[in-house]
Amino acid sequence: MNRTTLPVALIQEKNHGDADANLSVIEARVAEAAKRGARLVLLQELHNGAYFCQHESVQEFDLAEPIPGPSTERLGALAKQHGVVLVSSLFERRAAGLYHNTAVVYEKDGRIAGKYRKMHIPDDPGFYEKFYFTPGDMGFTPIDTSVGRLGVLVCWDQWYPEAARLMALAGADLLLYPTAIGWDPDDEQAEKTRQRDAWILSHRGHAVANGLPVLSCNRVGHEPSPLGASGIQFWGNSHVLGPQGEFLAEAGGEETLLMADVDLQRSEHVRRIWPSLRARRIDAYGDLLKRYID
User: Fold this and answer.
1) Which residues are CB-contacts of 275 (< 8 A; sequence separation ≥ 6)?
2) What is the sign of the dihedral through the CA atoms of 199, 6, 173 and 121?
3) Pick the catalytic residue: 92, 108, 118, 217?
4) Boundaries of domain holding 192
5) Cα separations (Å) of 8 from 96, 116, 143, 205, 227?
């Protein structure tokens, strides 16, 4: 292993009941990851509990907490204990009645290195996030850490090439996506396969288009719907990609600690032969700022 190689770990887990139980599992997994040499650890979206956005209920706002707050203190201490850079995903209470879906990055000394508030908020059956989350207002700004400049995005952001591109243009060394995505158990198998394949392809496209490694950490397990519907089967399939979209590691549908070594120098080599940045026609992209070209 050379100095440009970054050992990373993705913690793909199911919901264990509540924040204390889930954080206890995360603590054990991070300890294992650090023991195996990881320097960067990525958690899944809203890892403290169940994916509560399957319904709209004001009671769920009780789950939100300030940043800094109890979870950031616990996770920051965990990062410091094991000397890793840690990326978490929390339900942020910014003010009374104002909430965000927020990723928080902790430096290896335990301090908060930065945060990112989810910009694209879905409102689909089973994913009623607009009821809970205000769209982010921090822009697409990478977070500087001791392991590199991290372009952190969250779940639904994964469908927007603009988000990945802006992180790349701001100097991100890697793109990271905490996610919570799955299918309706009642869907036909062909539809399930199409959905999962599209999700993976979107990440591979971000890697190829920007010449960057991509880390995507998803949750697993079936979570019933409070509305009595079929619920969501979170499909896992967390993965680590190289800058040409190649798989460096890929998980299945079970709880797992996914490890990989990322060569940070490869982005430089790939961008020299695939000029994704220097060949851009920035003089011709003005219409991207329009909602639609009529």
Assistant:
1) none
2) positive
3) 118
4) 7-276
5) 37, 20, 17, 21, 38
Q: State yes or no: is 155 an active-site residue.
A: yes
Q: How far apart are CA 39 and CA 194, in angstroms?
A: 34
Q: For 78-103, what is each residue's pLDDT tens digit?
A: 999 999 999 999 999 999 999 999 99
What average pLDDT does range 235-256 have in this prediction? Answer: 98
The answer to whether position 288 is within a domain reads no
Catalytic residue among 13, 45, 92, 223, which?
Answer: 45
Count the domains in the chain: 1
In CATH, what number is assigned to the domain containing residue 178? 3.60.110.10
Active site residue 45: yes
H or E element, residue 195: helix 189-210
Within 10 angstroms of residue 122's Cβ, the number of other Cβ atoms is 16
The pTM score is 0.97
- Tally the C-alpha atoms within 13 A of residue 85's C-alpha that lie toward its C-beta: 20
- 201/284 Cα distance (integer angstroms): 26
Select which of 115, 155, 217, 223 is catalytic. 155
